[in-house]
Amino acid sequence: MAQAKENERMEKIVSLCKRRGFIFQSSEIYGGINGFWDYGPLGAELKRNVKDYWWRTMTQQREDVVGLDASIIMHPMVWKASGHLETFSDPMSTCRQCKKLVRSDQIWPIVIESSWARAIAELVPGGTVNTGQLVNWAKGKGQRIAPNLALVRNPEVTISWISERIQKNPAPFEAKELLQYVATEQFNQTGLVLPCPHCGGELTEPRPFNLMFKTHTGPVESEENVAYLRPETAQAIFVQFKSVVATARQKVPFGICQIGKAFRNEITPRNFIFRSREFEQMELEFFIPPDEIVAALAGDLAGVRGEGHPGEPQPNWGWQIWHKYWVEERLRFYESIGLPRTSLKEYWQKPDELAHYAKATVDILFDFPFGTEELEGVAARGNFDLSQHEKFSGESMDYFDEVAREAWKKFDESKKQELREDYREKKYDSLVRKGLELGEAKAQAEKESSDYFDKLAKGLYTPHVIEPSAGVDRLMLALIAQAFNEEEVTDEKGNKETRVVMKFHPRIAPIKVGVFPLLKNRPELVAKALEVKRLLQPHMSVFYDDTGAIGRRYRRQDEAGTPFGVTIDFDTLGENSALKDTVTLRDRDTMKQERVKIDDLVPLLISKVR
Ligand SMILES: [Zn+2]
Description:
alpha+beta, BirA Bifunctional Protein, domain 2, 4 domains, seven-stranded mixed beta sheet, five-stranded mixed beta sheet, 21% strand, flat, binds zinc ion
């Protein structure tokens, strides 16, 4: 039941998005293209507001973050260095019959939603199989909706395996087990197999499939000029790290942020705009000194103490507290655009789930109508990325820190020795954990340590990085799902009706204020309303509407998520002299109306929508 309700809610949201012009399917007049979406007039405003606010809070309102806007296509070596060419792949299976591709780790969720699997589940209430009914279905409806299912192609053989199972074990079938049985023809050779979600056919063994979109630069399509659409925006930041350091007058710790499109050839795009093939990211790479340097400079290293936001950044912060800081900053951001803390969850990835370069990753999750899914990841990536680009490009990614050099000079020999030993031990432990033989690990730790401290004596090191990486489109879906409300209201005549209202935070709402003359056919009301519209327009997005009853106009703006409505009536014109040059200001969420002076409108509304 809960599942059905959630699906129904999702369907309502998708339908509203289309009806009101938030989101359209891409190329719809040609039947659409799977995994691509277009933002309509309201969606485009909403998205722009979200990105602008992220940009404003992330860089313009901070001293320690600068922006970048890099190209989508970069040198292909970037993706070799980043690991995307080698490892950025999903396991894929192909259907031997209908030839469709399925992501191997997503077969089940798609199978159980398919019409043929649902039809079979209905035939087998409680998992008790009536083989005669299954055969009838296979010879009838099954031919149409699952033509390549083993049960349909060869009912006698398939049923014989099912009967054998019932004889051996009379217990009811689990849903998954049954769907495997009806998909399995050569049970004696293959065991139970996974069906193709589309036609019920046989799937091949999983094979890795690279998710990057491939293209060619220049007129010749050859291996030498292969290029890729970027699968993430982050790498451009690492590649331009030195250029930014050389020009931006920033000192580590500092960050570089970017908003831009990225592309992943998802095998099974799902859940509306949640997982699409073209999407937008908002990413920050925040560069920090390695912990040894911080400890050397500050005399001690602050770790995470207690829960919550750790406060203003301090010179003695190690990576763990910086990581915590960015998780909390990001949660605050979401709260400030209308996602309450209760709708968000933090998931700290377990050591065995971490990417090999990551020291820690927190997923910020949101309760979407189809389940709790990731909105943003905040990863502590060590110095993996810069080191990789140094290795592959041959360009040094060292950062020169004069303060670190001076501090190092002042240490006495015993302090230097202590730091060296500490570093070497940690290095040794990590190499042993990676599986190096002990003697080899010792030698390598020795070498790396001596290189590291030789450089440090000159004030040189490779910064580490904390990366908060958010998906704009996922966030759009979260904001739309959170804003979507259906309320029962009673109109002036006492009739009950359902009011659909998008309760966007005023800061991100596509339209900030609707302006309405009470009546369309009174030129003096229209003139005054247009005057109010022109007064507000330089400061915020305004929608002028003079058609239909005023109640209907309010409803239309409720569906668009417009937080304020201004109505110009006869009192505005001075019919009641005490109310001359005042308007009614309606609040979308409370539906309360108050009388406000036209002269006060701009400052009042600005204070609410910024
Ligand atoms: Zn198939």
